[in-house]
Design a protein that fits this description.
Elements (H helix, E strand, L loop, with lengths): L1 H17 L17 E3 L2 E6 L3 H14 L3 E8 L2 E7 L5 E9 L3 E8 L4 H16 L1
Antiparallel strand pairs: 1-2, 2-6, 3-4, 4-5, 5-6
Helix pairs in contact: 2-3
C-alpha cells in the first residue's frame, strides 16, 4: 500500500507535464465508408467543397434515373429534392463542414438505408472523376 502512495506524486507530476503537449491533428474519415445511418437518413462527409459535392450529388441522382425537382445551393450548403421512377421521394441536404468538406444528409422515402448508401457511394465515385 505504501508503494502505491509513493507513485501518486509522480503520477500527478506526469499529468501536469503532459498537459501542455501538442496533440497531432488528424483529419476525419471521409466518404461513403464513414457514413452513419440514423433516424431514417444517411449522413456522409466528403472531402470536397459544397459546389463540387452538389454537382456530384445531382449527377449521382441522374445516374439512378431520378427526376430532379428542387435543387438550390449557395456557399454554405444546398438542397436537392428528387423522385425515383416509382415516385419515391429522395431528399439531400448539403452543409459546409470544416476544412473544405461537405456533409450530406440523404433520405430515401421513409428511410431506405440500402438505397441511401448506394447514392452515397455514387456521389463518392462522381467526386473521384
Amino acid at each position: 500500500m505504501r508503494m502505491l502512495f509513493r507513485f501518486i506524486p509522480l503520477f500527478f507530476t506526469v499529468i501536469l507535464a503532459v498537459q501542455g503537449c501538442v496533440v497531432a491533428k488528424t483529419s476525419p474519415p471521409y466518404g461513403a465508408a464513414s457514413a452513419v445511418y440514423a433516424y431514417g437518413e444517411l449522413r456522409a462527409t466528403y472531402a470536397d467543397t459544397v459546389f463540387k459535392t452538389f454537382d456530384a450529388s445531382r449527377e449521382a441522382l441522374k445516374d439512378f434515373n431520378m427526376n430532379i425537382g428542387n435543387a438550390q445551393k449557395d456557399s454554405t450548403g444546398g438542397i436537392i429534392d428528387a423522385t425515383l421512377p416509382d415516385r419515391t421521394p429522395v431528399h439531400l441536404v448539403l452543409r459546409k463542414a470544416p476544412e473544405d468538406a461537405t456533409e450530406v444528409h440523404i433520405r430515401v422515402g421513409s428511410g431506405n438505408e440500402e438505397f441511401a448508401r448506394a447514392i452515397s457511394r455514387k456521389i463518392e465515385e462522381r467526386l473521384r472523376r
